[in-house]
Design a protein that fits this description.
alpha/beta, 10-stranded antiparallel beta sheet, 6-stranded parallel beta sheet, 13 helices
Length: 485
């Protein structure tokens, strides 16, 4: 195995590849939308990773690819440092892998030939009917968001664009030619914009070059199978390249209950006269908490780091009903001092700390110090700074604070050691705060796995009720005799 290159994909790279492929799925292009997806960050187009691997390929024999087999085992996000390695295997051909922190994210197998040969016309006739009576969506303003059965009943044709790949991807251009490169880019367009479309994850592909159709300017697609158990599409395609794709239908952003739904579980005046601060209240458990408080007539201030539109939608929903009220403040704990909130702490009865980095992360091995440091910054250093800030400004008020710990401290799945260690350390810190601070009383509960964007999964995993987990905690914080649990 040899090191052949490294790349950190940027926003500019995302825009360029979206331009040449026409794949403008929000998971690739919109950092605000991407934060509500499984990855929590913009994902690099899988096909962009594949073509980049061809740019780094050390083609010592000056050969040409005949067939390619590629799997994307872990998503690569904008800002990740991807290390490309190559193994030359006489039995299996060329193997190129892309890894982050020694965790394999892409595996590419290439079978080569010394010269360009004619296409294998024997398989062409069997696939030619894919183009008959098919839908031809072009230049879509946004990705399809259709039920799987809609795609199962259709066949599609995608017209290849005439973008010049020679400047940005010179080696891939030499290996494949512009027409085939455009076809490879069209695979990204089909998965990200058509099927599965909006909620898609490109899992794997394989293709051979069909030289008999190298001047064909369309690719034909058909869904061979859909496995509803895991949301997996098996798709065939045919044109100047021919082969198959596997792509998952990933879960959409996880909605929380509406204010109206929660009103059936909370007395209308249960939290009337209280004022709460929810740090990280624009989605997930923070969103659920502010709605519970508002359903009971409570007033609240929520902070957001980047999701202003999400925070405003929550505030508008609450203020329109007119039971409780909701204000919004920007607070990015990766950059902003807590003083920037400029809030009257003496008016607060309770504070809820739901700010968090991404929980599920890419890594190999059992422990990464840098990853632990990221969790430490949120759960320990910045939480402690918030407590110091509140203690100094509480006046005569006694403020109750909720810090969500996790059952992963004592029963964690693989790969969660840094997260669990940081939560455990925060529990120790909270014990010291409760001993030493005069104005604060911190409650920390080890929550089970609940339904949020961070915990969603392609394979459905059982989660407990957000309402049943949070409502007793909120009630506890709003009792005058509340004590740390």
């Amino acid at each position: 195995m040899r090191h052949i290159g490294e790349k950190i994909f940027s926003d500019e790279d995302q825009r360029l590849f979206a331009l040449v492929s026409s794949d403008r799925n929000p998971m690739h292009m919109d950092p605000i939308a991407a934060r509500r997806m499984i990855t929590g960050r913009q994902v690099v187009h899988g096909i962009h990773i594949l073509i980049t691997a061809f740019e780094y390929w050390k083609n010592d024999n000056n050969s040409y690819p005949v067939s390619v087999d590629c799997s994307f085992t872990n998503p690569i996000s904008v800002g990740d440092k991807v290390v490309f390695t190559q193994t030359d295997d006489q039995e299996h051909g060329i193997i190129i892998e892309g890894s982050i922190n020694e965790l394999r994210c892409a595996h590419i197998s290439i079978v080569t030939a010394q010269e360009r040969g004619p296409g294998e016309s024997g398989s062409v006739s069997a696939e030619n009917d894919l183009g008959k009576e098919c839908c031809c969506p072009t230049d879509l303003a946004g990705p399809f968001d259709e039920a799987p059965e809609v795609h199962a009943a259709k066949k599609y044709c995608v017209k290849l664009n005439d973008t010049d790949f020679s400047v940005k991807f010179p080696q891939a251009y030499r290996l494949f030619g512009n027409q085939c490169l455009s076809a490879i880019g069209a695979l990204s367009y089909f998965v990200g914009m058509i099927c599965p479309g909006l909620h898609s994850i490109f899992s794997s592909l394989n293709f051979t070059l069909n030289r008999d159709a190298e001047n064909q300017d369309t690719l034909s697609f058909a869904v061979r199978k859909y496995d509803a158990r895991v949301g997996l599409f098996d798709i065939s395609f045919h044109g100047c390249i021919q082969g198959g794709i596997k792509a998952f239908l990933r879960p959409p952003p996880q909605p929380q209950s509406s204010l109206q739904e929660l009103s059936a579980h909370v007395r209308a005046d249960e939290f009337k006269g209280t004022r709460s601060l929810i740090v990280g209240g624009s989605r997930g458990l923070g969103e659920m908490t502010v709605k519970i408080l508002a359903a009971g007539g409570g007033d609240a201030v929520i902070t957001y780091a980047s999701g202003f539109d999400d925070a405003k939608a929550i505030s508008d929903e609450i203020n329109k009903v007119g039971s409780g009220t909701c204000e919004i403040l920007r607070l990015d704990l990766t950059a902003d001092p807590v003083e920037s909130m400029n809030i009257d702490c003496s008016s607060l009865d309770a504070v809820y700390f739901f700010a968090t980095p991404r929980i599920f992360r890419k890594k190999a091995g059992i422990f990464k110090p840098q990853l632990f440091q990221e969790f430490f910054e949120f759960y320990i250093r910045r939480f402690y700074e918030l407590c110091v800030y509140l203690e100094a400004r509480a006046g005569t008020k006694q403020i109750k604070i909720f810090f969500p710990s996790s059952v992963y401290v004592c029963a964690r799945p693989g790969g969660m050691s840094e997260y669990a260690m940081a939560k455990a350390a925060a529990e120790v810190l909270i014990e010291e705060i409760n001993k030493s601070f005069e104005k604060l009383s911190v409650i920390s509960t080890r929550l089970p796995r609940l339904n949020t964007d961070q915990t969603s999964s392609i394979v459905k995993i059982s989660t407990e009720s957000n309402l049943e987990a949070l409502l007793p905690i909120i009630r506890s914080l709003n009792k005058q005799d509340s004590k740390p649990l």
